[in-house]
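Chain X:
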Amino acid sequence: MQLCAGSYALSVEFRREDARNANVGGQVDALDVDGDMLFHILKVRGVTSAITKEAKFIVATDRTIMLRFRGAFAQESLRFTVIRLSD
């Protein structure tokens, strides 16, 4: 995604597909266009059917970044939003 310099908030929900109360979670990292790690955004884990976490991050210059979402457990889906915060 192409982001302008500024502050952003990411909200991500990891959800078990089987809806059981068991291990769920994962992490999100920001990568450059070559797939190299720029920075870690968040990590979350719990014992529930779904877990949500929000984190703020800053992009120093206008750039393209890729978000890598990694589920920590099998059979998970996720939903996320990224919003730009007022400067």
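Chain Y:
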Amino acid sequence: MAKTKATKTKAQLEKSIADLMRDLLDVVCEAGRVSPATTPSAVLADLNAAQGQLARVVHMLRTSPAAAAVLEQGAAAATVDTSGMTTTALFAHFKKIAPVEDLRFFLRGTLSPELRARAEAIAKPKPADLVALRAAWRAERFAAERAAGIPGVGSPAWREQLLAELEAEQSEAAAAAEAAAPVAVEAAA
């Protein structure tokens, strides 16, 4: 029973550390994407929040040897020296970690709350999980684009829009060439 409790505590600790690090990464990423409308005080508030979360993680690591051990184990498992690997071993390593890296990359994007919760619930991602997530993301994105009046690529409405844009560009180029032509004649006289 003591071992089960220790394992449960270790799992809870790993989850807490992962949650804190994800929150910290989200705050820092959001602070990095500052729009011109964002006030400096809002950016400072975000950075202060990130600093507070980092302080909580550091405090947890200093006060809990178990937390430090879990973090060290995770870092040791995540750090792999690929410089001495053969080509075959290197490809095998990347094939092994690809689903996890794909999921991490997927979570960096802008997602609906439902899709983000679905992606974060995946403990050990498999390629099939990622295919389903990407399909759901595409369906959401396409629905949002259609609702905004953006035609689907290859649709008749898209083709009409493309042809109208090309025609407008050609007429602008012709008008610019026509406007430049009298200047050349006057310069020659």
